[in-house]
Amino acid sequence: MSSSLLRLVAFFLSIVCWAGAGQAAAIVVVSSESSTSYVATVDALLSELERNGVPRADVVLRNASDLGGADIAEPTPPRLFIALGTEALKQVLGREVRVPVIAALIPRIGFERVTKEFGKKTPTSVTAVYLDQPLGRQLDLLRLAMPDAKRVGVLWGPESASLQPTLTSVLQLRGLQEVGGQVGAGGALFSGLKAALDNADVLLALPDSYVYNSATVANILFATYRARVPVLAFSPSYVKAGALMSLHTTSVQVGVQTAAMVRSWLHSGILPPPLYPIDFSVTVNEHVARSLGLKLDGAALADRLHRLETLP
User: Minimal CB count within 10 Å: which of 140, 167, 196, 312?
Assistant: First the structure.
């Protein structure tokens, strides 16, 4: 049996055992999925918490699909919820919990949409470790990898449109220009993609489910490859599919930062504000890079980007 399969089995068994125990815990971790990436996040989270003095016996694991009202309305309620993914956050907030909530594995747009959806039902102490990267960091990577690129194509959708003023500002600070295209809620892609690629040196992909999803990604990457416009993506899976590179935070990095947020709360009793990832990685598609005449090293780019962010 492979190590990844063993990890998935262990994750399921831990959920089953705790669900039957009926034991209240200091921390309840609710996962939207039981995929490999979620298992890796939970493993890193638990290991880091244990390293900082939180025993695993004080942590209960739940699946969002199995979360019932009785799980939260125990005689001794949990002190903290950690919601991994959008569905987990919806399940937790939907039960009007009155204890702090930390969300992770969720992009900023998704976090803000869910908390707005629940409005007054949202506890005052809810925060997040965003999954996506700050726009300035993405553009700094672009300048390190492609210093001659000046025109940045962006395909805007209903979810990402709110980021446009911020992107305009960070582009101007770096002497870059936006080439924008629009995708409406109906999902018509071709005209917006054409506008975003016209005269663009690179396409910056932003997490927006109306734009980038399983039905559209292949067509977008095929069109950019034909137009010889490289894609800076937000997921390494897109790099495998044909994007030039991605700037992303790994599951382990998410778990470690979430544990640090828990540690801060345990020491102060106050949750920090929502934060972008502190740590990150860069993945490069070497075949695409060679076809564009570029020689890029993902690890070296990530190191240079880390050092750039530590400059005074």
Answer: 312
Query: Which residue's structure tokens are 């068994």?
Result: 13
Least confident range from 14-18, 127-131, 148-152: namely 14-18
Please give the Cα distance from 63 to 29 (Å, whole number). Answer: 8
Q: What angle do CA 87, 67, 57 make, to 5 degrees?
A: 110
Tell me what the mean pLDDT of segment 96-101 comes to.
87
Report pLDDT digits (tens) over 31-75. 999 999 999 999 999 999 999 899 998 999 999 987 755 445 454
User: Of all residues in the chain, what percent are helix, strand and coil, respectively (each to 5)?
Assistant: 50, 15, 35
DSSP assignment of 220-243:
HHHHHHHHT--EEESSHHHHHHT-
Q: Which tens digit of pLDDT belongs to each residue from 12-42?
A: 444 333 333 334 458 999 999 999 999 999 9
Which DSSP letter does residue 163 get?
A: G
- Binned at pLDDT 50, 70 and 90, residue 76 comes out as low
First to last CA, the chain: 49
Q: Edge to edge, what strands does the sheet with 231-233 contain?
A: 177-182, 151-156, 202-204, 231-233, 245-248, 281-284
How much is the pLDDT for 98? 84
- Which letter, b or e, does each residue of 74-85 get, where b requires 16 or more Cβ atoms within 10 Å of its Cβ? eeeebebbbbbb
CA 38 and chain centroid, separation: 12
Please give the Cα distance from 182 to 130 (Å, whole number). 24
Tokens of 115: 């908390």
Mean pLDDT value across the chain: 88
Cα–Cα distances (Å) from 165 to 27, 161, 162, 168, 169, in that order, read: 38, 9, 7, 5, 6
Tell whether the torsion through CA atoms of 103, 106, 112 and 118 is positive or negative: negative
The residues, ordered by sequence, that sit 6+ positions from 61 with a Cβ below 8 Å of its Cβ are 11, 14, 15, 18, 29, 31, 42
Angle CA 181–202–275, to nearest 5: 80
